[in-house]
Write a structure and sequence with these properties.
Length: about 400
């Protein structure tokens, strides 16, 4: 029995990055021997075991043969005779197809170390195109390692462009898992740009792909910058401010209603209606990919009301109360910080950004504090009952905000 540290742990060691988890491959063993040694079997499709003490994953060396559609359409063969080189051959990228033996010697049959030095994401073999999930994985790695100047090898990108016909066989859960991981990288916009370039965006995210298809002449009637560039630019800015998944996803979906609005502008759709047009598109996207309700709901609210967040200090007391209500800030104070982050992203890069940031944050927190400190007990003591309590609470909160704003004019 020989044990090898494989995959991301090896790659990240060579890149001098923190190791998040360790995966191992065992050569020359069998399921029964692993069980006899105290390992717990957890893999159903192929033999994967948990170490009895540290619970790290140990998989028996295996080969794969394409037998169906999608990323699950494989027949796995695990046998004591399978070598570490054969096991690494089935992996996606050369930088993920390396191993360390127990003596610390690097096993690198497909030149992953060379590609790390060249900063290239290159496929291991021709079998790369058998798994459509790899299109998303490569796009995610491009986003994750963009800050280290990694790019996709031209020949790998060609293969990705030829694999789009199988993307529809991917499960919604797997698509969202890869997308969620990409969204929390330092450069999430790279993920979507790569998918666009290889033709996957229009298949998996048609709502986003449409942003790239607005005729320039139509866009210029509404905004001096192309909408998809604006979306990617805003996503880039937001990534500099926060890794909050809710905030990043809401920025990604913020302008989904814009193409419908621009295409129907001749029908005199009101300007703010393009925000409402985006809500059903976000809903469709989230339902299709089974995106969690919390993330979806927040994105829909941001899409409809993000005009409120361009300059919070200009909001009237009624608009402030509307903002607190629709974002459910009363029960979820964390939403205040998220609102500020979205507002910040709108202004990041402006000359007076730091002053703007301080003023916006201070204004919003002060307004919320004033509205929230109105005691309901006083309203009840004054004889209000039932639904009239909430009506009177709103009236008093609005009055307090008006007094505060008038003092600070």
């Amino acid at each position: 029995m020989k044990k090898y540290l494989v995959g991301g742990a090896v790659r990240d060691t060579l890149l001098k990055l923190p190791i998040k988890e360790k995966d191992w491959v065992v050569v020359g063993s069998s399921p029964q021997e692993m069980l006899n040694n105290g390992y717990e079997q957890v893999g159903k499709d192929f033999p994967v075991f948990l170490h009895p003490e540290n619970h790290e994953e140990y998989a028996l060396a295996r080969t794969e043969r394409k037998s169906g559609k999608g990323y699950t359409g494989f027949t796995c063969h695990a046998d004591p005779s399978v070598t570490i080189e054969e096991d690494l051959y089935r992996r996606d990228l050369t930088i993920n197809a390396m191993a360390y033996d127990t003596h610390g010697n690097l096993v690198d049959p497909y030149h992953g170390q060379r590609d790390i030095q060249l900063r290239l994401l290159r496929h291991v073999s021709h079998t790369f195109n058998e798994d459509p999930l790899r299109v998303l994985r490569v796009a995610r790695f491009a986003a994750r390692f963009a800050h280290m100047n990694f790019t996709i090898a031209p020949e790998t990108l060609i293969l990705m462009q030829e694999m789009t016909h199988e993307l529809l066989f991917l499960s919604p859960e797997r698509i969202w898992i890869e997308t969620k991981k990409a969204l929390i990288t330092d450069n999430p916009q790279i993920y979507f740009m790569v998918l666009r370039h290889c033709g996957a965006l229009k298949i998996l995210f048609p709502e986003l792909d449409t942003l790239f298809d607005i005729p320039t002449s139509v866009v210029q009637q509404s905004t001096p910058i192309n909408t998809e560039n604006l979306t990617m630019m805003m996503l880039t800015k937001t990534a500099c401010l926060t890794d909050d998944l809710n905030v990043r996803f809401s920025i990604l979906c913020r302008d989904l209603g814009k193409p419908t609005f621009l295409n129907n502008k001749k029908n005199c759709i009101e300007y703010h209606d393009d925000r409402k047009l985006g809500v059903p598109l976000i809903n469709n996207l989230c339902n299709r990919l089974k995106i969690p309700h919390e993330i979806c709901n927040f994105a829909k609210i941001v899409s409809e009301y993000h005009d409120y967040l361009y300059n919070i200090e200009t909001l009237t007391p009624k608009m402030l109360m509307k903002l607190f209500d629709v974002f459910d800030c009363w029960r979820r104070p964390r939403r205040l910080e998220q609102i500020i982050l979205i507002s910040q992203a709108n202004m990041l890069g402006c000359i007076n950004y730091n002053n703007y940031l301080y003023n916006q944050k201070n204004f919003l927190y002060t307004a919320f504090s004033i509205a929230k400190k109105i005691p309901i007990s006083n309203i009840i003591e004054d004889g209000f009952t039932g639904v009239n309590i909430s009506k009177e609470l709103y009236t008093r909160q609005l009055h307090a905000l008006k007094i505060w704003k008038n003092k600070n004019k």
